[in-house]
Amino acid sequence: MLKVLHFADAHIDIATYGKHDPITGLPVRVLDFLKALDTIVDTAISEKVDLVIFAGDAYKDRTPAPTFQREWGRRMMRLSAAGIPTILLVGNHDLSPATGRAHTLQEFATLAVPHIHIIDKPVFLKPADLEGLPVQVLGLPWIFRSGLMAALELSGEDPDQLNQQLENRISDVLTQWLDQLDPAYPCYFDRPRLRSGRGLRQRTGHYVGQRPDPAGRSCQRSSPRLCGLGTYSQSPGC
Length: 238
Ligand SMILES: [Mn+2]
Hints:
The protein is 36% helix and 14% strand. It has helices at residues 28-46, 66-81, 106-110, 145-152, 159-180, 198-203, 214-222, and strands at 4-7, 51-54, 86-89, 116-119, 123-125, 136-139, 187-191, 226-230. Strands 1-2-3-4 form a four-stranded parallel sheet. Strands 5-6-7-8 form a four-stranded mixed sheet, with helices on one face. Helix 3 (106-110) links the parallel strand 3 (86-89) and strand 4 (116-119). Helix 5 packs parallel to helix 7. The chain is globular, with a radius of gyration of 18 Å. It binds manganese (II) ion.
């Protein structure tokens, strides 16, 4: 059986309150996040998981300080060195709304870090894309509405109409992917929340099937072997 470790919303740089640790110089609160991240990485290695799926938000700040990048990078490199295929999906906090800016996970792709797979655009990963693992992943990273509009060549004159158009196009893409699923392999659906109008946000669930969103309906209909993974938050902006 395939062993998958999923986590999300690391936000390791949230350090608004509290003292600094005199030895590392890092905020004590950050040390808590890093300890939790160590537990995740240790578990992935000790349990010999086949795949790690991170569903977005390594940091809170989309321009993280080098110290935080070092700490995140050290831990991802442990997964890489252990030879564990690791998917890092770009979340809303990992991406700048400004066109052309790199996201916070960019360097792993630029430097082609072994076993680290960055999802920064909608993608359907098959076994051949995932080092031969018998698994499929539908990756839908965070895309700001302006970027989504540009990618889909939509104009934004009427917000309600635009939301509907976006929803339809995303649903179309997902439906096409779902039609191509190989029933021989399990499939994971990896995405953060979609950023768009309130109406669409309310209709898009974090987990497949838990809320009445087009992706959820399509996925439930398509395959009982499909599992949704995502970020989880009860409040906007997380
Ligand atoms: Mn988050």
